[in-house]
Backbone:
C-alpha cells in the first residue's frame, strides 16, 4: 500500500482537485439550457456509456455478493449527489458550491464514526463545529455581501457531502478487495440506466436538444463533465482511497475551492467578505479535524 504522503498520492490529489474544481463551472454552463435533473441524469448516463466497455471487461473480477454493494456505492457516491449538486447550483454560484464541498472530509469523519466504528479525538469535534459554522456563514452570505437570509439550497450540497463521506467509508470497509477501476466502472454502469430512464422518460431533454438555442453547446459541457469529473476522476479517486485512507482522499476538497473560485471569477461571479470568512472557517475546521483525528 502506498504511503498516504507519497508523491503519487499527492499528484493524484492535485489532479483530482483540478478536475473536480472545474466541474462546478461545467454544471453551471449546462444549466443554462437544461434543468438540474436533466444535467444530473445526462451526466450519469454519459459516464455510464463511457465506462460500460470497461465494466463488461471487469465484470469477471466480481462475485455475486459484490453486485449489490457496487450498485449501492454508485447510488450513494455518484447518482444522488449529482442531482443534489445541480439542484443547488441553480440557486447559488458555482464558486460557492465549490467552497461548500470542502465539508466532505468532515462528513467522512462523522460517517466513519457513526456507521463504520471509527473513532476520533475530542479535539476533532472542535474542527467539525468550526467547519459547520463556516457552512452556515456561507449560506447566510447573499449577493452584495450582506448577511441577510438563509440560502436553503446550500443544504443540498451539505447533504451531498454526507453521501460522499458515507460512500468513502463504505468502499474502504466493504469492497476494498476490488480494484479501483472495477469499482468505478461497474458502480457507474449499474446506476446509469436509472439516469437514462429519468432523462428519456420524465423530461423533455430530446426536444430541448434539437430546438433550444445553445443546447448542443450546453450538451458539450455536460459531456465533458461526465467524462472528466465522473468517469475519469471517480476512477482516480477510488484508487486514491484504496492507496491511502478515506480521510486523506477526501482532503482533495482543500484545493478544489481555489479552482472553483478561479473559474467563478473568470465567469463573472463575485465573492464577498462573508464568503471568505465562511471558506476560512471550513478549511480551518477540516484541517483541525484531520490533524487531530485518529
Residues:
Amino acid at each position: 500500500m502506498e504511503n498516504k504522503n507519497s508523491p503519487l498520492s499527492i499528484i493524484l490529489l492535485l489532479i483530482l482537485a483540478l478536475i473536480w474544481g472545474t466541474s462546478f463551472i461545467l454544471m453551471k454552463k449546462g444549466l443554462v439550457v437544461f434543468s438540474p435533473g436533466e444535467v444530473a441524469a445526462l451526466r450519469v448516463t454519459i459516464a455510464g456509456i463511457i465506462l460500460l466497455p470497461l465494466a463488461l471487461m471487469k465484470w469477471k473480477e466480481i462475485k455475486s455478493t459484490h453486485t449489490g454493494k457496487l450498485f449501492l456505492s454508485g447510488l450513494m457516491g455518484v447518482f444522488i449527489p449529482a442531482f443534489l449538486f445541480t439542484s443547488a447550483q441553480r440557486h447559488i454560484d458555482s464558486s460557492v458550491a465549490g467552497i461548500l464541498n470542502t465539508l466532505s472530509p468532515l462528513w467522512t469523519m462523522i460517517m466513519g464514526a457513526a456507521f463504520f466504528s471509527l473513532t476520533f479525538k475530542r479535539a476533532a469535534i472542535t474542527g467539525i463545529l468550526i467547519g459547520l459554522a463556516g457552512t452556515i456563514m456561507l449560506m447566510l452570505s447573499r449577493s452584495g455581501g450582506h448577511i441577510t437570509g438563509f440560502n436553503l439550497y446550500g443544504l443540498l450540497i451539505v447533504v451531498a457531502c454526507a453521501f460522499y463521506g458515507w460512500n468513502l467509508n463504505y468502499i474502504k470497509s466493504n469492497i476494498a478487495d476490488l480494484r479501483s477501476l472495477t469499482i468505478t466502472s461497474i458502480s457507474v454502469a449499474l446506476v446509469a440506466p436509472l439516469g437514462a430512464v429519468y432523462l428519456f422518460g420524465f423530461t423533455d431533454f430530446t426536444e430541448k436538444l434539437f430546438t433550444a438555442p445553445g443546447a448542443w453547446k450546453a450538451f458539450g459541457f455536460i459531456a465533458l463533465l461526465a467524462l472528466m469529473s465522473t468517469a475519469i476522476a471517480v476512477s482516480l479517486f477510488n484508487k486514491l482511497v484504496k492507496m491511502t485512507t478515506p480521510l486523506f482522499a477526501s482532503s482533495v476538497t482543500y484545493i478544489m475551492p481555489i479552482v472553483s473560485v478561479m473559474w467563478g471569477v473568470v465567469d463573472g461571479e463575485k465573492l464577498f467578505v462573508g464568503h471568505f470568512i465562511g471558506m476560512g472557517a471550513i478549511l480551518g475546521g477540516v484541517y483541525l479535524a484531520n490533524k487531530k483525528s485518529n
